[in-house]
Write a structure and sequence with these properties.
CATH superfamily of the largest domain in chain B: Histidine kinase-like ATPase, C-terminal domain
Number of strands of chain B: 22
Number of helices of chain B: 26
Structural class of chain B: alpha+beta
Helix content of chain A: 40-55%
Number of domains of chain B: 6
Structural class of chain A: alpha/beta
Number of helices of chain A: 5
Shape of chain B: elongated
Strand content of chain A: 15-25%
CATH architecture of the largest domain in chain B: 2-Layer Sandwich
Largest interface: A-B, 21 and 29 residues
Largest sheet of chain A: 5 strands, parallel
Radius of gyration of chain A: 13 Å
Number of strands of chain A: 5
Strand content of chain B: 15-25%
Strand order of the largest sheet of chain A: 2-1-3-4-5
Oligomer: heterodimer
Chain lengths: 129, 767
């Protein structure tokens, strides 16, 4: 499996816990504390099927990051992992095919459903290719 | 004034005339007797027929030779004695008769003397009386000679007029009244002619200026008649006079006074009038005349029925007049209608009194009528206003109690009557503390309000109404109006408002909690995520079943199974589980706190109420906590559903959450207390504006202190760690804020609890 799962989250331990769990699940994971280094990594040739995106980030908000990434990498799928309980999925993101099932609220008591979702999305991407 | 002429002073006839007549016949008979006696004496003395011899012989025996001289002498002596005796008797008789006559005459004389004395005394008395009268009377006597000059004036004249005699005696009347003569030549000419013709005259009034000590003119009135001597020769005039100056002055004053009085009664705005028994006006003032549209002169002497067109009014007034005239009692007519000439109906208050018209012996009715139309209208207006004000104060929802400065009730409005159960009439004059025992303590405020002249407020006074706590705002307003010192106590039941306010405080608290939670949720959720995810990863990575773990352990030479046993024995796995549970609970608290937000999503729809309740009951039975800690199946569930209620508009998940929470609380409370037959009643009812869902239990109930705080966030009666302290407050928030409904609880220690959820029937009432 050469494709990466991208995790963008400003909380280091959240990144690391998710990475650990997904790696245990056999996934390749790249983590970034902000959108800019993630973009740099992608432009440097990094490839990614699924991105787990936090909403509150130091350089921009998650919604904008998804829009930017979708523009450059239309095949990329997104899961939203937010600490804000009042988060509502914007309409334009919904039109990109995102729905409430893609939104995961922190804290995650169990990461298994998230990992399952990543697998499903990765498989779809793979299937589409 | 004619002079008195007592008849007693003129002797009418001689008082002895009748006894004289008697004396005359007696003398006649006496003379006759005397003549008989004398003739008898003469006959006897001469005795031509010698009867004496026969008689003497008869007595002494015949004279013979033997008869002595003595006897003869005795015979002659006897014979002489007979006529002598007869003469003596006659003389005695005569003298007796004469004596009788003298005595009678003396008596007559004495009587005459006496009568004359009496007559003289009467004359003297009459004279004195006459003098006294002339002296005492305002009149005087005057006399003129044939030249018509004053010869005599009685003292009275000088005394009365103050005119000295020297100005009068010897002068003619017209000399004394020169000014008046000049002024009234005609009058004086006639008077003079009359005197010159020697005619009597009466009541001649003239003015004199002479010698008056008062320095002013005197008015004199005189009567006079000519006097003649026995031969019919004119001697002059004699008469009486009166000084009428004062009388004229009085008359003038009277006239003036009458004019003044007239002005006054014309000035009086009330109607003053007098009418006779036929309804004719004898007297009327201007106000009366105005009422009939006439002048006073036009009205007086005219009939009421002619000047006043309203027949029924005329008839009624005449009846009243007649009543007064007939009974002689005054009559007060408190109100009567009267239509004036302009057709305006006026209300009069009339008093009528019997009145004797001067110069007439007929009784009339004197009336004074006051126009009380305006007064009556004002009175009616006052009554109407009073009623209006009463209606106003009655329509006030506040309890209003008017009291005097001593706390005695003067006014109650309807709410006050309802609260006290005492009517205004019954409460009047009673101490307000007796009628409103809950306000008894306000007496000091009443006194203070009156003393200081300002409102005294007692907000949120607690009242115990049949065991329920009520709140009232009490205000005491001083009454400062003239003549009406006192105060008004106003009491408003603010229980509902206080409750709403406390609920609002509650809601505010929750909202602030919600706001706080929303702000910090992100910050807390991240560390919680670290804790929970960290826990999960830790547990996964020490799990011997996981091949990656085994590979790493083998590489560093650790027996993973043994390590796991170690972790188990040292309870490390247990601690990790504890961390995980604590993290989950913390996450739940945050999520509960976040539901105190108006922004939280709601999903409203029509929900079958019974179905929903059954769902909740199924959830309760299968609830993990309930299953583990409290055997929900042990609890008897009674369903008391209103069959008319089916669909309710609500957020199904949220209301399910609320009801489940209530069921959990009830089960928990009953289990803790060890209630022998725990029962929960689920009841639904349709109210006017709400759907009512009640959850009743027979658990331990709550005291008032707990009830007060039951919906407060973080308030809990449960042991630490058992509840979040947010369950009921979240329920409260869901019902009141998100559904615009009401959540309330009634309970008493030992008597279970009843939670009532009220959801609006009308969809529009939703926020």
């Amino acid at each position: 499996m050469s494709e990466w799962v991208l995790i963008v989250d400003d909380e280091a331990m959240i990144r690391e816990n998710l990475k650990a769990y997904l790696e245990d699940e056999g996934l390749k994971v790249a983590t970034f504390e902000a959108v800019t280094p993630a973009l740099s990594w992608l432009r440097a040739g990094g490839t990614c099927r699924v991105c787990i995106m936090d909403m509150r980030l130091s350089d921009m908000d998650g919604n904008s990051a998804i829009r930017i990434l979708r523009q450059s990498y239309p095949e990329m799928e997104f899961l939203i992992h937010t600490g804000s309980s009042s988060y509502n999925l914007p309409e334009d993101l919904r039109s990109m095919g995102l729905d409430d099932d893609r939104v995961y609220h922190k804290p995650l008591c169990d990461m298994a459903p998230l990992a399952a979702a990543v697998r499903v999305l990765a498989a779809r991407w793979g299937g589409g290719a | 004034m004619p002079l008195p002429c007592p008849s007693s002073i003129t002797p009418s006839s001689p008082p002895s005339s009748i006894p004289q007549r008697h004396g005359w016949s007696r003398r006649f008979y006496l003379g006759l007797a005397l003549a008989a006696i004398i003739s008898t004496v003469i006959a006897t003395a001469l005795d031509p027929f010698s009867y004496h011899e026969i008689l003497l012989d008869h007595w002494f025996g015949p004279v013979g030779q033997q008869t002595g001289g003595f006897i003869v002498m005795l015979r002659h002596a006897v014979w002489l004695l007979i006529p002598l005796g007869v003469v003596t008797v006659a003389a005695l008789l005569w003298s007796w008769v004469l004596g009788q006559q003298v005595a009678q005459r003396t008596r007559q004389l004495q009587q005459e003397l006496h009568e004359r004395r009496q007559a003289e005394a009467a004359l003297r008395e009459s004279e004195t009386r006459f003098r006294d009268i002339t002296e005492a009377a305002s009149d005087w006597i005057w006399e003129m000679d044939e030249q018509l000059r004053f010869t005599h004036l009685s003292e009275r004249f000088y005394a009365l007029t103050g005119i000295a005699p020297q100005y009068v005696i010897g002068r003619a009347r017209w000399d004394l009244a020169a000014v008046d003569v000049a002024a009234n030549a005609q009058k004086w000419r006639q008077h003079r002619e009359m005197l010159e013709k020697h005619l009597p005259f009466r009541d001649f009034v003239y003015q004199t200026q002479v010698g008056s000590s008062y320095g002013q003119d005197r008015f004199l009135k005189i009567n006079g008649k000519p006097i003649y001597d026995s031969g019919g020769q004119f001697l002059g005039y004699r008469g009486t006079g009166t000084d009428i100056t004062e009388q004229l002055k009085a008359e003038a004053a009277l006239r003036e006074s009458e004019v003044r009085l007239r002005r006054i009664i014309d000035l009086v705005p009330h109607m003053i009038f007098a009418k006779d028994r036929h309804g004719h006006f004898l007297l009327a003032n201007r106000a009366t005349a105005d009422a009939y549209g006439l002048t006073v002169d036009e009205l007086v002497n005219r009939s009421h029925s002619i000047v006043h067109g309203m027949e029924d009014e005329v008839a009624r007034m005449l009846t009243d007049d007649l009543e007064v005239i007939e009974t002689g009692n005054s009559k007060f007519i408190a109100e009567e209608t009267f239509t004036d000439h302009a057709g305006h109906t006026r209300t009069l208050q009339t008093i009528k009194i019997p009145f004797l018209e001067p110069g007439s012996n007929e009784i009339a009715a004197l009336g004074v009528a006051i126009d009380i139309t305006e007064q009556k209208r004002a009175k009616e207006e006052v009554a109407r206003m009073r009623l209006y004000l009463k209606n106003i104060i009655d329509s006030m929802p506040s309890v209003l109690i008017g009291v005097d400065p001593w706390g005695y009730i003067t006014v109650l409005n309807q709410p006050a009557e309802q609260v006290s159960g005492v009517s205004w009439e019954a409460a009047q004059g009673r101490f307000f503390g007796d009628v409103f025992p809950q306000l008894e303590g306000q007496f000091e405020q009443v006194r203070q309000a009156i003393r200081l002249g300002r409102t005294i407020k007692t907000p949120r006074m607690t009242l115990d109404a049949q065991g329920e706590l009520h709140y009232a705002d009490v205000m005491v307003y001083p009454l400062m109006a003239d003549g009406g010192r006192g105060a008004v106590i106003r009491m408003d039941d603010v229980t509902a408002r206080v409750r709403i306010e406390s609920m609002m405080v509650q809601t505010e608290k929750m909202l602030s909690v919600g706001g706080l939670a929303a702000g910090m949720a992100h910050e807390i959720n991240n560390p919680l995520g670290v804790i929970l995810q960290g826990c999960q990863n830790t547990l996964r990575r020490i799990d011997p079943a996981m091949p990656q773990n085994r590979a790493v352990a083998a590489a560093i030479g650790i027996d993973l199974d043994r390590l796991h046993r170690y972790l188990e024995q040292r309870q490390i796995l247990h601690f990790l589980a504890g961390i995980r549970e604590a993290g989950i609970r913390a996450a739940k608290i945050v999520s509960d706190m976040l539901s105190f937000s108006r922004r939280s999503e709601t999903h409203f729809g029509l929900v079958d109420l019974e179905e929903m309740l059954e769902t909740v009951l199924r959830l309760a039975v299968s609830d993990y906590d309930l299953k583990k800690k409290y055997d929900f199946k042990r609890i008897a569930i009674q369903r008391d559903y209103d069959p008319t209620l089916r669909m309710v508009h609500c957020d199904k998940t949220k209301i399910e959450q609320v009801i489940l929470n209530l069921l959990k609380n009830a089960a928990q409370a009953m289990a803790e207390e060890g209630v022998p037959a725990p029962t929960i009643i689920l009841r639904t009812r349709r109210e006017a504006e709400y759907t009512l869902i009640e959850v009743l239990d027979n658990g331990p109930g709550m005291d008032e202190k707990t009830l007060k705080r039951i919906f407060e966030p973080f308030f809990t009666t449960k042991d630490v760690g058992v509840g979040t302290g947010l369950g009921l407050s979240v329920s409260y928030f869901i019902v009141t804020e998100q559904h615009n409904g009401r959540l309330s609880v009634t309970s008493k220690p030992g008597q279970g609890a009843c939670f009532s959820i009220r959801l609006p029937l009308i969809r529009e009432a939703l926020p």
